[in-house]
Amino acid sequence: MDTCIQKIREIAGDLLEKGEVERVIGFAEGSIPMATSPVAISTKEDAQKLCFSSTCGLNLANYASKEKGKKIAVVAKGCDSRNLVTHIVENQIDRDNLYIIGVPCPGMVDKFKIAAEMGGEITGFEEAGDTLIVSTVDDKKELNKQDYLRHNCSLCTHKNPVLFDVLVGEEVEEQQLDNAYPDVDAIEALTADGRWKHFEELTQNCIRCYACRNACPLCYCPTCFVDESGPQWVGKGQDKTDVDTFHFLRAFHCAGRCTDCGACVEACPMGINVRDFTRKLNKDAQDMFGWEAGLTIDKRPPLDAYSPDDPNDFIK
Amino acid sequence: MGNLLEHMGIEKDRVHFSWISSAEATKFVDVVKEISDKVKALGPNKKFVKDYS
Ligand code: SF4
Ligand code: SF4
Q1: Which of A35, A78, A241, B42 could form a disulfide with A30 if both were Cys (CB 3.0 to 4.6 A apart)?
Q2: What does the DSSP 8-state code read for residue A156?
Q3: Per residue in A268-280, pLDDT tens?
């Protein structure tokens, strides 16, 4: 990990010094342990602030589309690179203005799970390979990282960046899964009422802060449907039907585009696994169109291209 | 869309999709009949309904 951080800093500093890019988007240490945050730096000196660890769970492609027209570099894990591909395919960024510093991803950790295991406030977090050394004021534990991986990372089959200009580490081995969607299958196996109950319970604590939407690289519309007031598509309060409508439509806007990067879940202060919505759409995209989002800039996404072979048995 | 609604627990027979030309009166009648039969069989919908009272 340390050599990879060194390389990120070197490359970023070099690019900025030579004026090849105006800004580098990466991660920096936050003010408390495990809270790395996205930064955009523009001087060689600031490159020393860049870091990388298993707590860099947000998706930096989200910030790339906000720098339109500028030459930028982005530090990208496997999923970030897939969202950069999606941005290019959707004309949000120009490939020529983008320099991708690819990081073969070691998997990100589930902060809620670690917090639950530790009980008290976390005062220290270090990593040594697959061992996480986590401390609170009166406790210190060594945890096996594989037991604390985020759910999406444990099912990830694209840890290596799919598009990059430089890689800062050796490619990691990709896992083969017999079933990529066991969680979706489990929900599908329920009755209609059981599924309804599942989603009602899932969103019952939602405070509609929209952090999930704000963290998602796919949500770049200048005015989101939930913020619009003329027409007002959905009520703005805590009415359960409005909350459900928000979640249903947010997910649907990600159909065929979601990379299951987990940034939405990472950002949610209430610990809601909003991926339960998007993963059903990802599975459908896979089953109906053999499509996984963000793998290549040479193909149009299924919802943006017509083919006579498109499945249409839902229509009478 | 139908699939995600179904996944969230809205019964499949509640939401129907059809393409009917303005010249296809009989198809229109058939589809509407089929829809109303299926929806009647399910009974009133209680999900995704906003209570304004
Ligand atoms: S981040 Fe969580 S609480 Fe906030 S709107 Fe999304 S699901 Fe609701
Ligand atoms: S919906 Fe969530 S998992 Fe999918 S791309 Fe957006 S932030 Fe990532």
Answers
A1: A35
A2: -
A3: 999 999 999 999 9
CA distances from A92 to A62, A87, A227, A248, A299 (A): 11, 5, 21, 24, 16
Is some CB atom of chain B closer than 8 A to the CB atom of A248? yes
Nearest to A53 by CA among A111, A137, A116, A135: A111
Give the per-residue pLDDT at A127: 95
Nearest CA in chain B to A277: B4
Predicted local distance difference test score (pLDDT) of residue A132: 96
Q: Is the CB of A272 under 6 A from ligand 2?
A: no
A44-to-A10, A17, A56, A74, A197 alpha-carbon distances in Å: 9, 6, 22, 15, 53
Handedness of CA A103, A218, A299, A95 (dihedral sign): negative
B-chain residue closest to A193, CA distance:
B9
ipTM: 0.86
CB contact under 8 A, B11 and A192: yes
pLDDT of residue A310: 87
Counting ligands in written order, the one closest to the CA of A275 is: 2
A251 inside 8 A of chain B by CB: yes
What tokens appear for A246 in the block?
Answer: 């928000």
- The minimum-distance atom of ligand 2 relative to the CA of A212 is 7
The Å distance, Cα A254 to ligand 2 centre, comes to 7
- For chain A, what are the domain ranges? 2-108+149-304, 109-148
Q: Flag whether residue B15 sits within 8 Å of chain A, measured between CB atoms.
A: no
Residue where the block lists tokens 């985020």: A150
SS3 A250: helix
**Ligand 1 centroid from CA A112, angstroms:** 15
What is the tens place of the pLDDT at every residue in A178-233? 999 999 999 999 999 999 999 999 999 999 999 999 999 999 999 999 999 999 99
pLDDT tens digits along A80-108: 999 999 999 999 999 999 999 999 999 99
What string of DSSP letters covers A18-32? TTS-SEEEEEE--SS
Residue with tokens 């910030």: A63
Task: Indicate yes or no: pTM above 0.95.
Answer: no
